[in-house]
Design brief:
The structure holds two protein chains of two kinds.
Chain A lengths: L1 H22 L9 E8 L3 H17 L3 E8 L3 H10 L6 E5 L3 H6 L7 H6 L9 H5 L2 E2 L2 E2 L1 E7 L2 E5 H7 L7 H11 L5 E4 L4 H10 L16 H15 L4 E2 L9 H6 L3 E6 L3 H8 L5 E4 L12 E10 L6 H11 L2 H10 L3 E2 L2 H10 L4 H8 L1 E3 L6 H16 L6 H13 L2
Parallel strand pairs in A: 1-2, 1-3, 8-9, 8-10, 12-14
Antiparallel strand pairs in A: 3-12, 4-5, 6-12, 6-13, 7-10, 7-11
Helix pairs in contact in A: 2-14, 9-10, 14-15, 17-18
Chain B lengths: L1 H8 L1 H29 L2 E2 L9 E2 L3 H8 L1 H33 L5 H13 L2 H11 L5 H8 L14 H27 L2 H9 L4 H12 L1 H16 L3 H6 L13 H10 L4 H26 L6
Antiparallel strand pairs in B: 1-2
Helix pairs in contact in B: 3-14, 4-5, 4-8, 4-11, 4-13, 5-8, 11-14, 13-14
Classes of the chains: A alpha/beta, B mainly alpha.
């Protein structure tokens, strides 16, 4: 019954917000322009970085006050109701996945005019990241930072087995076989598109075709997914973290129940805290065969501007500062995510040479986004691999055919 | 008498008294419900309300072509069909036990009621741990040589596991209601029956059960409403996805995802109203079934 209330509030709370929005005056504080920035803050460390950046910005721009509005709840839900009530922050974080929807629905301000006026050079940023926030030749967001995937491996286990970090699919499988022992698995992976997509592209497959329509059931995709799911089902050298009683593969790796995991840079601070003694290496994802092209995913977040912002010039100044070399220096120092500026990437590698694999991966990464098909396609593709791993389906081809059908429905 | 005088004597005062509640209910309950009903006939998103478009009953038609919605409806029905009868029977049984002269019955009453006052999210997390591969459930089964599995990741067992949890968490609440019902039954009836030579079973069958009918009606209705609106448990256990493979996808979870992940507020509202009509019809059927005297 409590649920009923929750749903009613959820579906209709926005109305209540609208009602109040009509009557409440906008923030004014002594003539200063107030810019509100909405941020999905995942950790105290991240919040502190933003606070420091904002303080720097304020001291450089007298007359502009920045108010940070951290959103810890379901981010998209919050932003959506705020936009509905026209109470959204002037500047906010936006993930690449929902970006096409928000752009299509006209919630965001195109930034091109401001980019030109302020001489911001978009080619200073990693191309794949900028592209994730562009549509119809317009740019709607400036990437704040990003993460890519890499293969983490436990050095001690590899030494014991007398093997090197795998560079190809065959080596990956072989290493996983050698390292699976008792309740320890060679490879621990989530059965989801965000992990198997690189395999598809490494095999010459594609998730979206040239027209931007789903193309999940290409034969190249089926072969790659078969290899991926066989690691779980046939070879039994990989497992799902939750199946082993872990929340995510990071836990399995920290507790030494996984010799290899595929994760992003977020695993590093986690391991530092949870398992500081583990010696591990980070390498690029293995390719199909030596010499074949590699692939990766870029998980990126941009700063975007609300269409309804009343101080657009000041809002852009804030975006510009946060994504400037100076602003990004904080990102580099923290090591939490990779800076989105190409030049900063180099600095990042200098500071953290062991993390080079992530920066290298960015060069050939696809943004984690599928146009307007986003949530449906991801869901369908996740189910395809899930049904294989759960042995509800034995052929990757059949699973992907079904997923394709679901994804096409839009 | 007093009541009548105050109504005719000073209607203004009365109206003023109900005004706050009236305004609050209109603004926060009736208004939003009507608004949601209006939304259900539109293609609508809060991201850009200007793009809203009247689509007639399209959203409702779409539901019946949407396989995932049907799966969600099926799951919800199975869940309800499993949970409601089990819950009602166990609640009655527990109420009978703690109503009797058992030693330490206060202790039992408290312990049966405790899960009800615990947050469903906390309970879900606890069950996640109980039912995981190396969890307590499997360790216990291991004692009998039965090999366990990851219950909540199993297509066939995820939903039943959550059903078990639902019964456990809500049974205490209904037990308390039954307990109140039991204590309302006049002792004389039992005494008279005993004099007539009726044994415990006949006393239960011919006195307790018929006199508890209004209580049972109330409990069944509340239980059906609760089960059809199940959301939290699935949201926590499947991390909002309804997995594995939609095995725990419920109507409310699906409509939540439609509204907040795919920005389809109109379609979500239509599903919410469909659910409302299902529950309404079930309630009316129940009422017929339990007879007219069980007006609430």
């Amino acid at each position: 019954m409590k649920k009923k209330w929750r749903m009613l509030t959820a579906l209709t709370g926005a109305l209540a917000l609208m009602v109040t929005a009509c009557s409440s005056p906008s923030d004014e504080s002594g003539g200063d322009q107030v810019i509100r920035i909405g941020a999905a803050v995942s950790s105290p460390a991240e919040k502190k970085i933003l606070e420091t950046q904002v303080k720097e910005f304020e001291s450089k721009n007298p007359g502009v006050k920045v108010k940070i509005e951290p959103i810890t709840d379901d981010y998209l839900k919050e932003i959506q109701t705020m936009i509905g009530a026209r109470k959204e922050p002037d500047v906010f974080y936006l993930d690449s996945m929902p970006a096409p929807d928000l752009i299509r629905l006209g919630a965001l301000e195109p930034l091109d005019e401001y980019v030109q006026k302020n001489n911001v050079n978009l080619s200073d940023f990693e191309d794949s990241l900028v592209k994730a926030f562009q549509a119809d030749g317009k740019t709607y967001g400036i990437p704040k930072d990003y993460n890519t995937l890499a293969l983490f491996y436990n050095k001690k286990m590899f030494q014991e087995a007398g093997i090197e970090a795998p560079k190809t699919w065959a080596e990956l499988k072989e290493a996983a076989q050698k390292l699976t022992k008792g309740d320890r698995k060679g490879l621990v992976l989530n059965p989801e598109l965000a992990r198997y997509q690189p395999f598809l592209y490494q095999n010459g497959g594609k998730v979206l075709d040239d027209q931007g329509k789903p193309s999940l059931n290409l034969p190249e995709n089926a072969d790659a997914l078969q290899f991926f799911s066989d690691l779980f089902v046939k070879d039994k050298v990989a497992d799902v973290p939750r199946n082993m009683g872990f929340d995510w593969s990071g836990d399995a790796f920290a507790e030494q129940k996984a010799a290899m995991v595929v994760e992003g840079g977020w695993l590093i601070p986690f391991l530092k805290e949870k398992a500081p003694d583990i010696e591990y290496g980070i390498v690029e994802l293995p390719v199909k065969e030596a010499g074949k092209p590699n692939s990766n995913l870029a998980f990126t977040v941009a700063y975007v501007m609300s269409k309804n912002s009343k101080n657009k010039d000041a809002a852009f100044k804030l975006i510009e500062y946060l994504t400037s070399e100076e602003g990004q220096a904080y990102v580099v120092d923290s090591g939490l995510a990779l800076p989105s500026r190409k030049a900063m990437g180099q600095k990042f590698v200098e500071k953290y040479p062991e993390r080079e694999a992530f920066v290298k991966g960015a060069a050939y990464a696809q943004p984690f986004q599928y146009g307007e098909y986003g949530p449906k396609l991801t869901d369908a593709a996740n189910k395809a691999v899930e049904s294989l791993v759960l042995k509800q389906e034995s052929s990757a081809k059949a699973a992907l055919d079904k997923a394709q059908q679901q994804a096409e429905k839009k | 008498m007093n009541l009548r005088r105050s109504l005719t004597g000073d209607p203004l005062a009365g109206l003023l008294f109900i005004l706050p509640a009236f305004v609050a209910l209109t603004v926060f309950l009736v208004g939003p419900i009507l608004y949601a009903f209006w939304l259900s006939f539109h293609e609508f998103t809060f991201i850009n309300p200007d793009l809203s478009k009247f689509v007639g009953i399209d959203n409702y038609v779409r539901m019946f072509q949407d396989e995932r919605f049907q799966k969600a409806l099926l799951n919800t029905s199975i869940y309800s069909l499993g949970v409601v009868p089990t819950q009602v029977c166990i609640a009655l049984l527990l109420a009978l036990i703690v109503d009797g002269k058992v030693r330490g019955r206060t202790f039992f009453r408290v312990s049966y009621f405790l899960p009800t006052v615990t947050s469903t999210v906390a309970v879900s997390v606890m069950f996640l741990n109980l039912f995981k591969k190396d969890g307590v459930v499997n360790q216990f089964l291991g004692l009998f040589g039965i090999e366990g599995r990851s219950w909540l990741l199993d297509v066939d067992f995820a939903l039943p596991s959550i059903m078990l949890m639902a019964v456990w968490t809500t049974v205490g609440q209904f037990m308390v209601i039954y307990l109140a019902g039991l204590q309302d039954i006049p002792q004389e009836l039992y005494e008279a029956a005993e004099v007539d030579g009726a044994g415990p079973f006949r006393r239960f069958w011919h006195i307790t059960l018929p006199l508890l009918k209004p209580t049972t009606f109330f409990i069944v209705i509340m239980s059906i409403i609760g089960t059809f609106q199940v959301f939290d448990q699935m949201y926590v256990i499947s991390k909002g996805e309804g997995g594995p493979l939609d095995a725990t996808l419920t109507v409310v979870l699906y409509l939540y995802n439609a509204a907040f992940k795919e920005f389809e507020m109109g379609y979500a509202s239509a599903m919410a109203f469909f659910l409302f009509f299902v529950i309404l019809i079930l309630t009316l059927v129940q009422r017929k079934f339990f007879g007219e005297e069980t007006r609430m």
